[in-house]
């Protein structure tokens, strides 16, 4: 691991790219030794999706599928980090949210690499982004389209207004009303809040 870190630092010093972009080649890498794929401190069973990913990790190692292996190792590493916090990953919904964060970071890195003229990095990131997208699509966690989400938010706002909720409290009240409908679904809560604020003019 120490040798890997030294190589990353040396690459950062030599690369013409912005410093924060250089390590992005390693974003998908599993920079751990013997992997603890799930929190050993937790007595809860890991999410079903996580078990599938563990199986795919073993298959990718056997077949030497480097892009898929990088994606899966990134998920395992992020999950391990989460297990050391107050909010460990316990459900498929939480795991999908974590995977989306990894995917978003990779998309941002791909955009930076493109702006820097590093098409080699762009191609590598794009390939792994597609693999992550496939896993998200087959996760089994229900997602909401933009139109569906907007309709739910509009209904929640209308209900809040009908109940006589003050304008300054509309966002909070609407979020409470919609929380039940969003439970167990693959939804970005920040996006929901932004949409509520937009539709309430706040």
UniProtKB/TrEMBL annotation:
SUPFAM superfamilies: GatB/YqeY motif. InterPro entries: Asn/Gln_tRNA_amidoTrase-B-like (IPR003789), GatB_Yqey_C_2 (IPR023168), YqeY/Aim41 (IPR019004), YqeY/Aim41_N (IPR042184). One of its GO terms (cellular component) is mitochondrion. The keyword Electron transport does not apply. GO terms for molecular function: carbon-nitrogen ligase activity, with glutamine as amido-N-donor. The keyword Cell division does not apply. PANTHER family: ALTERED INHERITANCE OF MITOCHONDRIA PROTEIN 41, MITOCHONDRIAL (PTHR28055). It is found in: Mitochondrion. This is Altered inheritance of mitochondria protein 41. It comes from the Eukaryota. Gene3D superfamilies: 1.10.10.410, Uncharacterised protein YqeY/AIM41 PF09424, N-terminal domain. Belongs to the AIM41 family.
């Amino acid at each position: 691991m120490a040798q890997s870190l030294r190589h990353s630092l040396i690459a950062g010093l030599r690369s013409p790219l912005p410093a924060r972009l250089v390590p992005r080649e390693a974003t998908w890498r599993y920079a751990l030794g013997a992997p603890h794929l799930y929190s050993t401190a937790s007595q809860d069973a890991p999410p079903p999706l996580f078990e599938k990913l563990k199986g795919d990790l073993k298959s990718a190692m056997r077949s030497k599928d480097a892009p898929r292996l990088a994606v899966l190792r990134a998920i395992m590493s992020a999950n391990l980090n989460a297990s050391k916090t107050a909010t460990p990953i316990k459900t498929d919904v939480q795991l999908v949210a974590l995977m989306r964060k990894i995917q978003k970071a990779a998309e941002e890195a791909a955009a930076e690499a493109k702006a820097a003229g590093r098409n080699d990095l762009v191609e590598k990131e794009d390939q792994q982004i597609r693999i992550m997208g496939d896993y998200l699509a087959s996760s089994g966690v229900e997602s909401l389209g933009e139109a569906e989400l907007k309709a739910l938010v509009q209904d929640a706002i209308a209900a809040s207004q009908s109940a006589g909720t003050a304008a300054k409290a509309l966002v909070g009240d609407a979020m409470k009303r919609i929380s039940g409908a969003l439970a167990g679904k693959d939804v970005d809560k920040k996006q929901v809040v932004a949409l509520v604020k937009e539709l309430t003019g706040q």
